[in-house]
Amino acid sequence: MAAPSAAGLCRRLRAWLPRIMPVRWSRYNPSYLEPEVKKESYQKPLEELTEEEREQMDLKAVRPIKAAPPTLSSSVFSDPMISKFTNMMMKSGNKVLARSLMSQTLEAIKRKQVEKYHKAPENEKETIECNPYVIFHQALKNCQPIIGLSNITRGGKTYQVPVPLTDNRKRFLAMKWLITECREKKHRRTMMPEKLSQELLLAFNNEGPIIKKKHVLHKMAEANRAYAHFRWW
Amino acid sequence: TLRLVCTTTAVQRKNVGASGPEKYTEAFIKKQIEEFNLGKRHLANMMGEDPETFTQEDIDRAIAYLFPSGLFDKQARPMMKHPTEVFPEQRKIQWGEDGRPFHFLFYTGKQSYYSLMHETYEKLLNVQKHQDQLIAQDLPLQKEKRNLAGSRWLTKIELEEMLLEKLSDDEYSRFIQLLQKLAALPCADIEETYIQKFSKEVPVQLQKVVIEPLQYDERGVAFSTGEGKRKTASATAVVYDNGTGKITVNGIDILHYFPVLQDREQLLFPFQFLGRIGKHDMVCTVSGGGRSAQAGAIRLASAKALRSFVTEKEVEFMRQAGLLTVDPRVKERKKPGQEGPRRKFTWKKR
């Protein structure tokens, strides 16, 4: 009976520390599942589904489903990564401004790439990527760190210990670095879309200050390899 | 028998709470049931109705008529119910005349819960032994997947009613984990009857909502209505067939009413999901809420109206895409002693 008791112990410990637990609750019953908006997933015929997908489908047929949030839509233009980035760029709930900045950024990227495309010689024309969504995704992927550092205090001294990062954390760090870089390191007169498109194009080609920051982090982690055993999770 | 000569008031004072809630004897409950049945017949006589076919609803109506009460709380008004509903189900005395308890786990405090855990674990060991026997004989293990989606485990309250004991959340979760472990084993079919005692059928078709048939107006065009709510906004939408894709809100075109792209995207979401963008016309009225809430309300209303135009399978797809659920998120109330729903006042050292 060791397996169920271990998980139960963790939960019990967590429930026992009331002050430290944040009050995070949702208006939905815990049995509600997340909605699936993409049209393609509903058009797959039954035979192509794997075992897990079939189980998921059976579960979805029985359980209630949450309402789709206003940022999510089945159109080709709605992208979860772009919405996340827009939300992080938003200040004081001004979603209209954040969204317009994002669309201006994507437009600026497209313009720059199309200009480059028209100026390039014939043999290089195929290598130039014009789709701003592809550029955005690739740039974010290039900015994501593989390993992170966390502060662990042992015997009075605080050490920087290399620690693996989850996917969500990597994405969040990449987006956060992009936004802070564009907000602080620009001239007062340059507009945000311009600066952002510049940084995204640099990150797409694995150049620029954010990629440098990522490499610095990796080097620090490599230097502190000796303390890796301090991690207990 | 010895009797204490010098006592203190503390010893003499009887601890009223220690014996637990009032215990009702079986004879007492029987007498209550007889009195209830007799009273039911008298009441039926008084009201001039047939005593044989006097149901509980008739009793409630009669009591409300004879003893009108202006009290707010329904539980405080006079009521006449069957004694099994009034007196909670209790355990009989668990020990014999000599004071020795019947059950060997009596002194744990929760004898039925622990005996249940022991029983379930015994079944688990049984199944594992059977599995080992099958492996020893090189026979294939039965791999019929039990349909987990169609059933759910008993809730904590139902389990408490079954065991007649209070449980903590932790104990309940431990029991459920054990049951899941038992059900997940390949040879669990042997103990199927035991597991079924603790599982309940969930209605497979969650969307047992009646889809209204299409209505036809004077020109012969099919249309259907739907209503939707989001935060404080409420909307009604009328979707017409054979249209060009024009959408009108409160008499104004959507391009003028919703200048923000996100809201227009939300309005078109149900149509785009079903692939019917240019085929329907929509006229909606909306009031209350802000711009995003109104857009969400119209989206729900149009999705509900589109159900009548579309096959059942597509309705199920719409439900799984989250188009047909009412969004329950509302503004959280401000609490006293805090500045907002979550934000606390600035902490000042002095």
TrEMBL record, chain A:
<dbReference type="GO" id="GO:0005743">
    <property type="term" value="C:mitochondrial inner membrane"/>
</dbReference>
<feature type="domain" description="Small ribosomal subunit protein uS7">
    <location>
        <begin position="68"/>
        <end position="225"/>
    </location>
</feature>
<dbReference type="InterPro" id="IPR023798">
    <property type="entry name" value="Ribosomal_uS7_dom"/>
</dbReference>
<dbReference type="InterPro" id="IPR036823">
    <property type="entry name" value="Ribosomal_uS7_dom_sf"/>
</dbReference>
<protein>
    <recommendedName>
        <fullName>Small ribosomal subunit protein uS7m</fullName>
    </recommendedName>
</protein>
<comment type="similarity">
    <text>Belongs to the universal ribosomal protein uS7 family.</text>
</comment>
<keyword id="KW-0687">Ribonucleoprotein</keyword>
<keyword id="KW-0689">Ribosomal protein</keyword>
<dbReference type="GO" id="GO:0006412">
    <property type="term" value="P:translation"/>
</dbReference>
<dbReference type="Pfam" id="PF00177">
    <property type="entry name" value="Ribosomal_S7"/>
</dbReference>
<dbReference type="InterPro" id="IPR000235">
    <property type="entry name" value="Ribosomal_uS7"/>
</dbReference>
<keyword id="KW-0496">Mitochondrion</keyword>
<keyword id="KW-0809">Transit peptide</keyword>
<dbReference type="GO" id="GO:0005763">
    <property type="term" value="C:mitochondrial small ribosomal subunit"/>
</dbReference>
UniProtKB/TrEMBL annotation, chain B:
<dbReference type="GO" id="GO:0005743">
    <property type="term" value="C:mitochondrial inner membrane"/>
</dbReference>
<dbReference type="GO" id="GO:0003723">
    <property type="term" value="F:RNA binding"/>
</dbReference>
<dbReference type="GO" id="GO:0006412">
    <property type="term" value="P:translation"/>
</dbReference>
<keyword id="KW-0687">Ribonucleoprotein</keyword>
<dbReference type="InterPro" id="IPR014721">
    <property type="entry name" value="Ribsml_uS5_D2-typ_fold_subgr"/>
</dbReference>
<dbReference type="GO" id="GO:0003735">
    <property type="term" value="F:structural constituent of ribosome"/>
</dbReference>
<feature type="region of interest" description="Disordered">
    <location>
        <begin position="328"/>
        <end position="350"/>
    </location>
</feature>
<protein>
    <recommendedName>
        <fullName>Small ribosomal subunit protein uS9m</fullName>
    </recommendedName>
</protein>
<comment type="similarity">
    <text>Belongs to the universal ribosomal protein uS9 family.</text>
</comment>
<keyword id="KW-0809">Transit peptide</keyword>
<dbReference type="GO" id="GO:0005763">
    <property type="term" value="C:mitochondrial small ribosomal subunit"/>
</dbReference>
<dbReference type="Pfam" id="PF00380">
    <property type="entry name" value="Ribosomal_S9"/>
</dbReference>
<dbReference type="InterPro" id="IPR020568">
    <property type="entry name" value="Ribosomal_Su5_D2-typ_SF"/>
</dbReference>
<dbReference type="InterPro" id="IPR020574">
    <property type="entry name" value="Ribosomal_uS9_CS"/>
</dbReference>
<keyword id="KW-0689">Ribosomal protein</keyword>
<keyword id="KW-0496">Mitochondrion</keyword>
<dbReference type="InterPro" id="IPR000754">
    <property type="entry name" value="Ribosomal_uS9"/>
</dbReference>
